[in-house]
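[Automated response] Your request has been received and processed.

Submitted sequence:
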Amino acid sequence: MSRTVGEAMRAAIDSLAPMIGQDEARRDVRMLMAAATGWTSAGVAARRDEPLADAAPHFDQLLGRRLCGQSVAHILGQTEFYGRTFDVGMGDLAPRPDTETLIDLALSDPWTTLLDLGTGTGIIAITLLLERPEARGLATDLRADWYGTARANAQRMDLGDRLTFLASDWFARVSDRFDLIVSNPPYVTEADYATLQTEIAAWERREALTPGGDGLDAYRAIAAGAPAHLTRGGRLLVEIGHDQGEAVAALFTAAGLEDVAVHPDINGKDRVVSARSSA
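Generated structure:
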């Protein structure tokens, strides 16, 4: 007799939980089952007693990839962020809920021009522009092929010409000033990179994760270039590692930026450093 949906999910959770914990295993298995069956999450919950039947091979294949360490975002090619679905390509940094802290802070003040440094999948720039229909933005990454997913996401979400893209090494090819500069740069230290989970290190570009060394090189570049690219009173917001708040804040203060502050995420961990150009 074919396994029921519920039986298959319970067995999958038992297999995954030792790797990633019970709560994350439940979430991942629910998403994989929805992808395998074509049902919504509500449909999966409502049909737990039904036979898995024809969807079983597909579910087993997806689960096998997850057990090998591939993230759900890279398995499915998409993920949810700030209530929207974004495409995620192989090598892209998979969007994480922690980044929503930066979004909320960015939306707490008025602005009409945006620069997103190291855009990756484009989740920050695209989300902010969709939340601010009157605004325009520029998104950069070191190489044009690294923002291919971001461009596709922007086109799919009908941003039109409100978001443009540029290959640039941080500010090297950026000439304008902006009301808001944001970035989720590579910040993992060389030592910590060696200990990352397989789902991160094996499937996300090294360059999107670590600059090597102490993990602060991107912040040094951003601190050096931001004052010349912010409008008067403009803001800078960057995501950080949980133990980097003090160091990044010191870099921004040394660069002459004002109102420097460290902000926690929903779990109480330092997540964003903000600063403002002189008025």
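Summary generated for your ticket: The beta strands are 78-81, 84-87, 113-117, 136-141, 163-167, 178-183, 230-239, 258-264, 270-276. The chain has a mean pLDDT of 94.
If you did not submit this request, please reply to this message.
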